[in-house]
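User: I've been trying to design a sequence by hand for this structure and keep getting stuck. Would you show me what you'd pick, starting by listing the structure so we're on the same page?

Assistant: Good idea, let's start from the same input. This is the structure you sent:
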């Protein structure tokens, strides 16, 4: 029967089916983009958000640990998974509006994003300040004048011996490990001089390798 001669109810049903198919395609595309984006977008988004919220001129070094990026990526993947389940549910089951209830699970991704953004550490003139993933908005400070030892950690890599990290140990035996990278180099010498001036013992594990 030509579309023009079809009953109005049938035409509306066809239009609705077309809209349903298109919406499923859009949702599936968004889900795929979120899955792919979760592999690299956290490095961009976490950096931009933390830089705008927390980094200031008084901070000599600001860094997000890997756990921050991983947690943000998990949040993105959770949304992608919920959308994928929605598409599958819409395709296989005719349960009316109930299939949209899966969207209510999307807000469960919010804690992942919040904890991710609040996971960072930085160095300033007072000491090292660390906000761990498990302690939301709770900053632990390792003051320079509380340090008793700094241990430079070496590791062998492809036949070369390289600095991997610095362990800062306070007088009450709290430990913070700062990974070594090229961004640490500009202030490393000045930091070590300041620690020596405060009679902090500087050691390494070179002889143990």
């Amino acid at each position: 029967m030509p579309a023009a001669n079809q009953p109005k109810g049938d035409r509306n049903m066809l239009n609705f089916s077309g809209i349903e198919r298109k919406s499923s395609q859009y949702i599936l595309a968004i889900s795929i983009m979120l899955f792919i984006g979760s592999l690299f977008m956290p490095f961009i988004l976490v950096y931009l958000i933390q830089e705008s919220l927390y980094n200031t001129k008084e901070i000599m070094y600001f860094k997000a640990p890997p756990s921050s990026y991983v947690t943000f990526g998990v949040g993105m993947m959770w949304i992608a998974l919920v959308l994928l389940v929605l598409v599958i549910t819409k395709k296989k089951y005719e349960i009316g509006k109930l299939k949209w209830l899966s969207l209510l699970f999307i807000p469960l991704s919010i804690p992942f994003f919040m904890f991710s953004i609040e996971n960072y550490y930085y160095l300033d003139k007072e000491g090292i300040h660390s906000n761990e993933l498990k302690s939301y908005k709770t900053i632990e400070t390792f003051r320079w004048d509380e340090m008793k030892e700094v241990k430079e950690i070496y590791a062998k890599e492809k036949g070369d011996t390289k600095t991997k990290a610095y362990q800062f140990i306070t007088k009450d035996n709290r430990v913070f490990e700062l990974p070594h990278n090229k961004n640490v180099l500009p202030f490393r010498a000045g930091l070590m001089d300041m620690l020596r001036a405060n009679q902090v013992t500087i050691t390494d594990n070179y002889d143990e390798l």
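That's my pick for every position. To get oriented when you compare it with your attempt: The chain has two domains: 3-120, 139-208. Residues 3-120 form one domain.
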